[in-house]
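sorry for the late reply, my laptop died twice this morning and i had to redo everyting from scratch. anyway the thing you sent over, i finally got around to it. pasting the sequence first so we're on the same page, its 373 residues, then the predicted structure underneath. double check i copied it right bc i was rushing
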Amino acid sequence: MPEVEILTTDSEIVDLALTLSKQTSVAVDFEMDALHNYREKVCLMQVSIPDRDLIIDPLAGADLKPLAPVFAAQKIRKIFHAADYDLRSLRRDYRFEVTGLFDTMVAAQLCGEEKIGLADLLQKYFGVELDKKYQKADWSKRPLSPEMIRYAAADTCYLHRLAELMEARLRELGRHEWLEEECRWLEAVEFEQNSGPLFLRFKGAGRLEPQQLAVLEELLQWRDQEAERRNCPLFKVIGNKPILQIAQNRPLSRKQLSEFPEFPPRLVDRYGKVLLACVERALAQQESEWPRYPRSERPKRDPQVDSVVAKMKKWRSGRAEGLSIEPGVLINNALLEAIARNRPKSVEKLSDVAGLRRWQIAEMGAELVDLVD
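ok and here's the structure:
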């Protein structure tokens, strides 16, 4: 790997933007700090062009706005591997729009690769072994060691070659348009705006009774404030399992807390008092104050729909095997059920099914209509 340049100043970003604007493709990756800080952020941006590998350090204070036109330019291909989360983070932190995406992980899925991780693909095609030693490192800390810099740069320096290989394979299979459409969908992703009670984003909350939800919300509000105070992720304050156990059982004493399997003595000693206070506050609420978990109306079970979906899954298995592709990549279960419920009478009517891709209609539309007929 050639020497990696690290950019930290406004003038360097302006020069880089000018250089990238003249490229036909740019490989991009990010390092973030979700495992180490309360508010996750982009800590490094890795960029590779055919003759240079660069690292941009956003935490050094440089203004990244000059790069916005590069990410928005359709004529410049932006190569990512597993772009979904990176694109959401780019939009969240910088409000950048991305067009011209080429996702090598999605390409690998559509090629029928058994293993789609970047390390697996680089090992298979180039004999390159990526060292994942720093996968969970704290990328917000400075200075970065030379080893961390090399590790970060390795995630982009092979992406151009991998994209060329995947593209050639997709064209050979007649699936290049499949990738283009999937990438257009990815370009629009963004994080959902979090609003309302915290329990709405807590796994398992939907199974709790109203008073248990009241306890859960008190616990989550306290944990969120504590994590922000300490600038650490929520799980480093206390995990979800102990939180859920308290909400379910509503303990009133340290003794009861200590009897829970998820509560070692150190956890009781450190947080027992404040956790019990959360329970007491929730139990003091009037029934009219208890929160209710919102229930969306689920479609009624339809034996005919279930029968059609079962038939479609069996068909999908054979179709996917013939294409050497994973069944869920070819078409997922949610789309199969939506088609079975919509009962389209023609291939044209399949376009009414939300989320169904044009390439899926072109490749399988007539068969799908026959299956629901």
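The mean pLDDT is 94.
thats about all i looked at so far, will dig more tmrw
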